């Protein structure tokens, strides 16, 4: 089932998400619905807060990046078929040089900006079967994971922009929160919810 994606401005996107255990209700169905929602919106990652749930769950499928001819063959191979569920994730370390990449977000449609992030991360997490993992990623894989991890920390990519850039985007962000935007996937807008309530 495709779920509506929560738009910029909703308080759920600003909460530090809570951990879950293997008894979380209907977890398997939730993960399936999140995959369907992400693919329907042509995303490469989706975090539970983006569908209104303040829990430490996100998923990533970087396969669409594997066709990028600007990337090395090695990086294309790493991205192709990389599909994972991250539960109760904790980034233990971020290291390496900061590098810039143009990021977007399903909760903030039609805005893309250059964001600096460290090159390499070490992350511990549970998979969908609650098996523990501790892995190190670099490059674009690390960046996608960092972006989704930020969501469960209540952080958006726009928070990483300069104060001037954020001021320039203020009007566009307000329009998104009010639903004054055309998107080709289901969204829920906080300002519209308030107006009806």
From TrEMBL:
Under Pfam families, the record lists: Pep_deformylase (PF01327)
Q: Which domain of life is it from?
A: Bacteria
> Molecular function (GO) terms listed?
metal ion binding; peptide deformylase activity
Give GO BP annotations, semicolon-separated.
Answer: translation
Task: Kindly indicate where the leader peptide sits in this chain.
Answer: none
> Residues that bind Fe cation, according to the entry?
105, 147, 151
> What Enzyme Commission number(s) appear in the record?
3.5.1.88
Give UniProt keywords alphabetically.
Hydrolase, Iron, Metal-binding, Protein biosynthesis
Cofactor info, note text: Binds 1 Fe(2+) ion.
Query: InterPro entries annotated for this entry?
Result: Peptide_deformylase (IPR023635), Peptide_deformylase_sf (IPR036821)
Q: Identify the enzyme class.
A: hydrolase
The UniProt catalytic activity note for this protein reads: N-terminal N-formyl-L-methionyl-[peptide] + H2O = N-terminal L-methionyl-[peptide] + formate
Q: Which cofactor does it need?
A: Fe(2+)
Q: Which residues form the active site?
A: 148
Keyword Metal-binding set for record:
yes
Record family assignment: Belongs to the polypeptide deformylase family.
Function summary = Removes the formyl group from the N-terminal Met of newly synthesized proteins. Requires at least a dipeptide for an efficient rate of reaction. N-terminal L-methionine is a prerequisite for activity but the enzyme has broad specificity at other positions.
Q: Which PANTHER family match?
A: PEPTIDE DEFORMYLASE (PTHR10458:SF22)
Q: What is this protein called?
A: Peptide deformylase
Q: Which gene encodes it?
A: def
